[in-house]
Amino acid sequence: MIELNGVTKLYKSVIGVNEICLALPRGAHGLLGPNGSGKSTLINLITGQLRPTIGRVQVFGQRPWNNRGVLRRIGLCPEQDVLYPNVTGLEWVSYLLELYGFGRSEARRRAEEALERVGLAPAMHRKVGEYSRGMRQRAKLAQAIAHEPELLILDEPFNGLDPVGRHALTELLREWVHLGRSVLLASHILYEVEAITH
After folding, report:
1. Whole-number pLDDT of residue 20
2. Which pLDDT value is given to residue 158?
3. What is the mean pLDDT of residues 136-148?
4. Is 43 left (phi over 0), alpha (psi -120 to 50) or beta?
């Protein structure tokens, strides 16, 4: 599913990741490491947001850089907030689904289902700027799963979630894997990863 051959990413004179050789089959996988260890850089390489300085990255047998076919098969929940404060959660997720190529009514239906699945149904018509940190995290997760990707990539997805939210997310991810889909979960907390994958 994911293959990195001798991948190095340099930020001028700073090494983001160095000589990564990795092959991951379908399933659930965890990226563990402290802040600054290169987890987000690795995710950005896998999702085609960065190009390697040296080496080759392949996802589903293809290079992800500027490859819409590969990117459509991936759902990304980034660590940073990339939400627009003046739109509702429903409008935001629907719009992103339209960018994936879904028609307006199908995008809205999928957005409603995804927001309900992550526990945001009561707040889907509120502006994102009114959301708490945990609610924004759930909205990011909703947009990542709404198009039912084969591979779900989560960068520190438990940030901002209370214990109830953490439990709900863990159960959602276990179900996701049980349905035969894949997850790549980046965290610096071992038990969060162990709850999803060995």
Report:
1. 94
2. 85
3. 94
4. alpha
- C-beta separation of 91 from 41 below 8 A: no
Residue in the block written with tokens 């526990």:
119
Q: What is the pLDDT of residues 175-195, one digit of tens each?
A: 999 999 999 999 888 888 888
Task: Give the model confidence (pLDDT) of 56-110 as tens digits.
Answer: 999 999 999 999 899 999 999 988 877 788 999 999 999 999 998 999 999 999 9
| Residues near 39 by beta carbon (within 8 Å), at least 6 away in sequence | 31, 33, 155, 186, 188
| CA dist., res. 90 & res. 96, Å (int) | 10
Three-class SS string for the chain?
CEEEEEEEEEECCEEEEEEEEEEECCCEEEEECCCCCCHHHHHHHHCCCCCCCEEEEEECCECCCCCHHHHCCEEEECCCCCCCCCCEHHHHHHHHHHHCCCCHHHHHHHHHHHHHHCCCHHHCCCEHHHCCHHHHHHHHHHHHHCCCCCEEEEECCCCCCCHHHHHHHHHHHHHHHHCCCEEEEEECCHHHHHCCCC
- Separation CA 81–CA 52 (nearest Å): 24
Sign of CA dihedral 149, 153, 159, 163: positive
pLDDT tens-digit profile of 162-171? 888 888 989 9
